[in-house]
Amino acid sequence: NRVFFAYPSVVAAAVVTATAFRGGDSDDRSEFKKSWTPWTLPISRCEPCAVSDVVIVGGGIAGTTLAMFLTSGGEEFRFLESDLKSNDLISGGRRNRKGLKVTLLERQTVASEATGLSAGTLYTTGPPKGSLPPEASSIPTFRHISSLLYQHLQSLDDIEYTKCGCVQLATTKEELSFAKDSYEKEAKSVSKPENVKFLKSLQEVRTILPEAGPSVLGAVYTPNSGQVNAGLAAHKCAEIAEERGAVIKENVTVKKITKVNDFYAVESSNGEVFKAKVVVVAAGAWANDVLNDENKVDVYKVKGQMGSSGMEAKQGDFSKMPVVYWFESYKDWKKNHTIPHHMTHDKDVRRVTRHAYGKRSPDGILYFGGDRFFPLHEADYEVNSQLLEELFKAKIYPSLPSLSKFFSHDESGSWAGIMPFSKDGRPTIDCLDKQGLFVATGFGASGIMDSPGAMWFLADWLKGNPKSKLLDRFSKR
Q1: CA 325, 326, 328 angle in degrees (round to 5)?
Q2: Which residues contact 60 (CB under 8 A, 6 or more apart)?
Q3: Can you list the positions of beta strands (E) in 228-288?
Q4: Which of these, 50, 66, 111, 169, has the minimum number of CB atoms within 10 Å of its CB?
Q5: Cα–Cα distance between 394 and 377 in angstroms, integer?
Q6: For the whole model, what pTM was predicted?
Q7: How do residues 443-475 score in pLDDT, each as one tens digit?
């Protein structure tokens, strides 16, 4: 059985480290989060077909949504494009929507790595204007489609999707100026002006977030943003794909991928061989582990960490709240790009900016954090409590003073995990050998927001339709 634990999507974790937020050493998961609920997907034990149309390596949100889209005839998901028809760069040329034979291989269990512990923060301003060039409309389009997909999945099963909105806070005059500039830029690109709002004072912020403290000067509010339990969403996508004939095999570690005549041989560490006409590596931070030197892509393993209140916010403070972000890190990253992009600490774990965010999950648990730095080794899931506590004291508590009571008791805790970052902050979605070896990785902290929408267009490409221009800027670099 697996356990899921939602937290803001900027951090993804593969393994929970149940370390007390105040710096304790407990590794007892049951003591850390008594409300965990085991949830398992009935995985098919049938053997894959002799040669699949597509083998997907990776069972996170990218791999499972891709499997679902590929096995679908496409008609049931046409609504994902309904708001995008004005953009001829997106919806032109659709022809072949047949379902394909798919095998998905996951080295652990579905959603056990980055996806399974992601909070699934969904920042969206709705569909972009159809007149925007693809380099400007790609990410907003992906995020809009992802949100529509999560809404659809919620109608089928409870994946804890809520459209709670998002406020991004400014706490200095420089940040407020940056926030205003960001708002004005987004306001020019959205199809509906009401999808993004500038809150120019603390009083206006408190109409959305009553708990905001006096250090808050303003914010940008996006009412269509929300959250989802990404682990549950990935399992639902895998379940739908399996119902349509996909073979999902867990605990299969891919060793190498070889082109043999007209198909690819995907060999596992235990000697199994899976044959396919096309292979898509969607293995997140571990993508390069299965690619040869010629095909390796720009992806870094980056560690993130979060705190959990453990105690539910049922009444009073934070009984209802939007997703919360802060502008400090985005302002700093605009001036100085870290390598990889969007880091909070350098290679010596010296802080370069404070990236903070948080949310209240549907069950009332509060999750806040946001640090991003290099792990000491591939399996480094140990929480750096000193860094996390400093982030809370310096950034989070001054803006939300009443939050501290939720993180100062025995049920509060923290955890860490690994995300796939890239040098320039963009994922890689491309065909690596001009034949049938594809990759989709490097979504960083935004995989839950961006990858389902991106996989919609990748699936269409794999079915023989023209490649969408929205994917062009994500070619291998």
Answers
A1: 150
A2: 111, 113, 114, 115, 116, 234, 282, 284, 447
A3: 247-249, 254-260, 263-268, 273-281
A4: 50
A5: 28
A6: 0.89
A7: 999 999 999 999 999 999 999 999 999 999 999
